[in-house]
Amino acid sequence: MAENPQNAPHHTGGGADDRTPTVIVDDVDIVYRVNGTGGGRGTATAALNRMLRRKQTEKASGVRKVHAVKKVSFVAYKGEAIGLIGTNGSGKSTLLKAIAGLLPVENGRIYTGGQPSLLGVNAALMNDLTGERNIHLGGLAMGMSREQVKERYQQIVDFSGINEKGDFITLPMRTYSSGMAARLRFSIAAAKDHDVLLIDEALATGDGRFRKRSEARIRELRKEAGTVFLVSHNNKSIRDTCNRVLWLERGELRMDGPTDEVLKEYEAFTGDKPRKPAAKPKPKETKSRELNPQGTRSQETRSQETAAR
Ligand SMILES: Nc1ncnc2c1ncn2[C@@H]1O[C@H](COP(=O)(O)OP(=O)(O)OP(=O)(O)O)[C@@H](O)[C@H]1O
Fold first, then answer.
1. How far is the CA of 295 from the centre of ligand 1 (A)?
2. Ligand 1 in reach of 291 Cβ (< 6 A)
3. Is residue 97 assigned to a domain?
């Protein structure tokens, strides 16, 4: 990597002693452009005007910008498993895609050491091909040799658990449930040792047993000196697998640090678990209500109020 990691902001997470950086995200903005949000049509004169006034072209032709990631900076190191959390639409998947090189950045730079692999619930496998063929093609697409794929084939099938309920691996993927397909995708990706593995909600679709297996594999991948990024709304999965958490909110990096510290703040923010136990309600005071940061009452406050009635 060309950039000097000293220039990048310091983070409080950690665990890796050798501190070899694998991903550097330096002051990155990512902007989507959505076409066709304006009037769209118009007269030939209006079209000519748009062409002549280039500065106004985007607005006039109905292109709307969505600023999905704003001035985000961090450095990821070998051996780290980093959870990306944040409420819906906060920019987690967008940032992951940009690290994978699938989205351009508007400003700033992303440097990666090694090849990042994005494993998402939408990762492309061929629906009309059997699970077996998809394992072969997926393995080759990730850069494994034919021999390596052959060698690991059975391990992938066993890990996925696809054949636990019958010989499904020789059936086309379109006959799989969404959970089965997600398991196969994860199993293919996890068969390879990755420099940087990016996982987007893949664990959400598997059942409890599969999730445990996957979490164990993520820990293994960390030990094998890779870096794992995990986007998830399941705080338990993040707690069990990650040593560091980045919290994005409205596209901005709100917190970066050790898992427990960040999750504690995040849970207080979302109202999942209030930071402090709520004070005992005074029976006659019905007007004052504890609000969480979104302005909604927390579950606990509500049940205390109900109990007080
Ligand atoms: N293809 C797209 N075109 C335009 N805007 C998009 C596109 N994809 C995402 N966005 C917008 O970018 C912002 C961030 O979206 P993103 O999917 O990265 O959030 P997220 O944190 O992964 O959300 P979730 O937890 O719901 O999956 C949102 O405002 C979303 O509407």
1. 23
2. no
3. yes
